[in-house]
Amino acid sequence: MRNGFSVSSSSEFVNEIRDDAREALFHYHATACFRPGRGLRAWTRPAILGRIKSARRFALDLADGWQDHPADPQPQEHTPLDLALAAVGVCSLKTAIAGGSARGITFDSIEMVVSAEVQPQEEDFLPTARVRRIAYDITTRSDADAGLIEEVTRQILDRSPNHRTVKDTTELHFHAGERELGWSPAAIPAGTSGGRTVRRHVKWISGTQFESAGLDADGCRLPLRVDEAKQFAGVDWAPNPQEYVVLALAAELASLAAREQKAATGSAGTWSVHAHGLLDLRGLMLVDPAAAVGFQTIGCTVDRPAGLGADEADRYFRTAVERSALVELLALPHPVEVRLSSDERETLRAAAGR
């Protein structure tokens, strides 16, 4: 064991997936529901980790970003974008720690500020923004020299699943019942100006446990916890980085679909979205170079509100998909800059989107 990671267990897992590729297929599930008057809630559902079913159940109340909150003008809930950035940051740090542990590095601490430059389609409305650039500012303290730390940190660019999902083109599918809905990201209207940077601080606690907190003056101060299932050295403390991705996507789409219905009819019904993501760990573990490191596919299925016709519900949901910041972030490739600072103040700049 080093840094709470078992290097020998990783080697055993590589042998298992070489013997049976099904052991490498990890399915993550989440559901989000928007209810009028009650807001937005998202929760994980059991994950299928190879041949193991892991009973994962974590729930979060989230800010939808568009309702009036007269009693709480600055609600403390996280947004779906907060969840997504935390997921990307933690996954990247975890990759660096795992790689460093295999190389004999003992980390005293490792943390990151992950930032996203966003261009809102509407004034200061993040759920329909377009992410233009992402940056990681990583600070480490360890017993290793700066050259080895730089080498390990570079592994993020190739072997962090959530990083690769953002960096690469990812296949996304959207369904209403059995019907698959075609979609394409909506362009930012001509003449749109301004923009902002959303930042989150991610820190490693121990083993697979992390915390992430917002850094914006008007952001949520409550930290998000991140952890793995017990089958993978976690303590079931919180959702893992991949679960946060599907949680965030389901939540944003449920909220946006309700918003579209309210804009068209004056009221919103109850919208539920179920999200599923598939990872094939053969790419991450270097067993099959042809396997994607990031999510192979991400799919979402919507349950339409009671009393709403199928065509009308499809229209609202498709518009939500086309305008979603997270759909655009996950489906299309984005440039990512990595900057590394150690005690020696060595700096790494790597444009992962090139």
Radius of gyration: 20 Å
Beta strands, count: 15
Poorly predicted regions are: 70-74, 343-354
CATH class category label: Alpha Beta
Tally of separate helices: 8
Counting copies of identical and different chains, the oligomeric state is single chain
CATH topology: GMP Synthetase, Chain A, domain 3
Report mean pLDDT, rounded to a whole number: 88
What characterizes the major β-sheet? 8 strands, mixed
Query: Which percent range describes the beta-strand content?
Result: 25-35%
SSE order in H/E notation?
Answer: HEEEEHEEHHEEEEEHEHEHHEE
Number of domains: 1
What form results from the Cα inertia axes? globular
The CATH superfamily is K homology (KH) domain
CA-CA gap between termini: 36 Å
| Overall helicity | 25-40%
Structural class: alpha+beta
Level-2 CATH architecture: 2-Layer Sandwich
Features:
30% helix; 15 strands; alpha+beta; seven-stranded mixed beta sheet; KH_dom-like_a/b; OsmC/Ohr_hydroprdx_reductase; GMP Synthetase, Chain A, domain 3; eight-stranded mixed beta sheet; OsmC/Ohrsf; 354 residues; single chain; disordered C terminus; 8 helices
